[in-house]
Amino acid sequence: MGIIALSYLGVNSNKIEDWSTYATKKLGMQKVDSTGKSLFFRMDDQKQRFCITGDEGDCLSYLGWEVEKKDDLKYFADKLDKANIKVFVGNKSLSDKRYAEEIIYFFDLSDNRIELLFNPFKDDKPFIPGRPISGFKTGACGLGHAVLHTEKISDLVPFYRDLLEFNVSDYSFDPIKLYFFHVNERHHSFALIETGRKGFHHFMVEYNSLDDVGQGYDLIQFEENAVAYTLGRHTNDYMTSFYSITPSGFFIENGWGGRIINPKTWKPSEMTEGPSFWGHERLHMPKDQRLKFRKKRLEVAASGKQSPAFIDCPWLYSNMKK
Ligand SMILES: [Fe+2]
Question: Ligand 1: distance of its center to the CA of 277 in Å?
């Protein structure tokens, strides 16, 4: 029981034209509905994965987390209530809008709107990507992952770990404070980063093929101010990815080859090798900050640390055996 996947997310933005092109032609999502004011997108057989609300702000509007059983909604509502977090029960209009059977929602300590939902609806029509990609890796592991800025990471960790029962994957203190959480076999579906501010840092979509990522990189890498992090590979989830700058200013990680873990045997630990084995040059950062990450990567490379052979990834291995 409990929270089992990142199901959907919404962004407040009124840059409708820019987002429509970006989500379909750059990311490869399918635009399914447009009210003129809002945009809705599919990434797979789920009716809705991503929404641009049409409201001003260029910020996160909501994160939707799927629970395993309908009773889980009551369980979390009671638990949050005891912790003095006000919980709202979504009405039919909200669940119709999100294509889910039942929803509750509340706000974390930084005012991020969190929705818990039971039974997201599927579409019987096939997913048609907005550009020719092999598809998104979603399924039981959910949409991907979402990462929030924090002013002070220690203020928010207990909310997600103790109240929402997210499981800690790992954490680091240098060159930046990070906390990663899993709710299924994806190494992390959620993370917090201490940057001294609030809001949405990025979300990650994972593709079925490395070529989907490479071709997406070519579509944006020659545009000005379009790449936040260059192509690189993360040390904890082994994701090969680049980060693009969205029309709203936050980032989207375009990734492939993420690590699948066994949540039953996983033990959280401190990461000391920094976030990337190679690449991920942070083009959006001032030079002095960028150099700290580069120094760390060069130390990792000099030590010979690399991701294990792909046969150690159960997901790829199980697909290989088919
Ligand atoms: Fe990420």
Answer: 14
Query: What integer pLDDT is reported at residue 317 of this predicted model?
Result: 55
pTM of the model: 0.94
Q: How far is the CA of 81 from the centre of ligand 1 (A)?
A: 31
- Cβ-based neighbours of 209, under 8 Å, separated by 6 or more: 133, 134, 256
Domains of the chain, earliest start first: 3-303 (3.10.180.10)
Consecutive H or E run containing 153: helix 153-158
Query: Each residue of 65-100: pLDDT tens digit?
Result: 999 999 999 999 999 999 999 999 999 999 999 999
* DSSP, residue by residue, 32-86: EEE-SS-EEEESSSBS-SEEE---TTSEEEEEEEEESSHHHHHHHHHHHHHTT--
Q: Please give the distance, rounded to the nearest whole angstrom, from the Cα atom of residue 145 to the centre of ligand 1.
A: 7
* Cβ burial, residue 16 (10 Å; 0-12/13-18/19+): middle
Ligand 1 mean position, distance from CA 304 (Å): 23
Instruction: Tell whether the torsion through CA atoms of 123, 129, 133 and 138 is positive or negative.
Output: negative
